[in-house]
Amino acid sequence: MRKHNRIGWGGGLIVLLLTAGACRPVPSAYLPLQPRAQALLNQAEQALQQQQFTQAVLLADSAATLQPDHPAILFFKGRVYAHMRLLNESDSLYRLVARRAPTYPGLWHNLANNAARRGQFRKAITLFRQELAQRPNALSWRGIGRAYLELGKPDSARLAFETALAYDSTYAEAWLDLAELYEDEGRYAEALQAARRAWKLAPQSLVARYRLGNLLRLTGKPAQARPLLEAVVQEAPWHQAAHYSLGRVLHQLGETEAARRMLERAEALRALQARVEQAELLVANTPRDPYAYATLGSLLRRLGQYQEALYAYQVAHFLEPGNLEFLNNMAILHLLMGREDQAIALLERAVRRDTTFVDGWINLGILHARQGNREAARHAWERALRLAPDRPEPRRYLAGLETDTP
């Protein structure tokens, strides 16, 4: 089985997932959603886009009280569970859709995607073809291509990618798949051409910039590769392959010391990335274990992949909503991404749920202090001190309030 970058079948984002239930009409054999149910489902879609999984399911359930077993609602909930890698639950919901609306847009595609994420690539191809029999589209052809790559059939994969591009020549991800395929075969000139097409279509894509930069390195163009790889490393300091490729580029350009430092960083990232991959395997094997997700979130945070770490903690929180440490870690990640208001809201939610949550009060005080709200910070740290008089942090922070000028 092939191993490629952490995109595609794994990872928090399902790049081949169709969202037909949220944006396309339900087959005419079924009644349309009532305005109130549609409004609730629109809100649920917004929650899902923000990875607020509990809220997304609650809103969808509210819509279901108005129109029970409506295919659009079932399909949406299937997507939510698929995003959380809870594939059995997702499949069950999709199968309910299949009983009521077997021609529902995206249904067989998403079932195929779930099969592929389990490693059932032949089954995935069959399901993708069921989708294509109803509505030919580039996305499902790309899914077939990815599955054939996993099965070690590059010729079939190439044909599938080319068919996807025949439907949509602006499909940057399919061009990147072709570039990856050609690179694996050592056909660097063709890989470079495909990567250039992808980069021109999606110049902000990290994958496109890395793929093009690495191929420029492999084809003896280090000066052209350098700015692309430097941009990836700056934007994604966790990107091990980009660090390695940039280190090789610097070596080719004669910058020996800078190359050494970059390659050392790449090696350190490789070791941490190996631990992330182990954690992802644990999640795949125990998808209902919140602590498997929390472990993954902790490692992703160490890598600097804050958005991906937040995803992992949000799934953990969905699975164990009473765990306040998950909320605390989610707040820290929001803070690391510059979202202080969201962090404060999460911590306030945590201490409302359990007024004895010391870490929540301490961190809430820190955030209030960062925003210049000294009295709110004082209140939070005094609460923490009363709850845990042996903890040094609240006493130290309170002392700092006395010495700092307002």
TrEMBL record:
Each TPR repeat, start to end: 138-171, 172-205, 290-323, 358-391
Parts forming coiled coils: none
Pfam families documented for this protein: TPR_16 (PF13432), TPR_19 (PF14559), TPR_2 (PF07719), TPR_7 (PF13176)
Keyword annotations: Repeat, TPR repeat
Top-level taxon in the UniProt lineage: Bacteria
UniProt-recorded name of the protein: Tetratricopeptide repeat-containing protein
